[in-house]
What we know:
It contains seven helices and 13 strands. With about 250 residues, the chain is an alpha/beta fold. The chain starts with 9 loop residues before the first strand and ends with a helix. Keywords: Glutamine amidotransferase, Transferase. This is Glutamine amidotransferase.
Amino acid sequence: MARLSTRRPLIGITAGTTRMMSGAWAGHDAVTLTEHYVRALREAGARVVILSPQDLWTEEELAELDGLVLSGGRDLDPSLYGADPRETDLAPDPERDAFEAGLYALARRAGVPVLGICRGLQIIAAAEGGTLHQHLPEDVEAYPTTGLEPTEVDVELSAASDLALALGTRARVTAYHHQAVREVPPALRAVGSHAGSGVVLALEAVAGSPVLAVQWHPELGEAGAGLFDHFVATARAASAAGTVRAGVR
Length: 249
């Protein structure tokens, strides 16, 4: 009888860069990621490696990962989706934008499953040719303002989606953003929206390797555990399938 592998999936998650404001390292940049992401992935059974914008990866190196998570953070540079900046935009981080868009492209070519969270969803949408609402309180008045503090919102999910397998067709989630997808690109499909306004809150890839993106923060609280469990299971299955195809891994 074949032995089942006990190897934990190796999941890479992106981090941002923050300028230290006090103490001995004031004025120096730090690679930052809230520990909630790492804890949620570990509790779902993954090994975690943090990916910093200063460390570029090749496609061969990225293919060593079983999954890629694009984490939350500041606004995207609006030039990524053909828009002009607004006063409401938070200062962009072009280095991180380019880093994460590049990682996403590599993951798609290598067949590595991707999970986008909040800003991560926006990177995926922009990389595929979509556009964003730059300030929801102005662009969609019916959507609750979440740019200043975490807000509980109701999301309706397509029954014919991987996301519904993890969460069901309706969920209350924790959102913390003021931008969201305006136009969904052809390579993606909307599988979740805000129950009151129709704002897109979840995307999946139409074809190819698994891509799942949510506009909320599943790492906050216990309600998002099912999403991380689902993603890690997807990464484990993709890794096993790759082993069968390639005979290595």
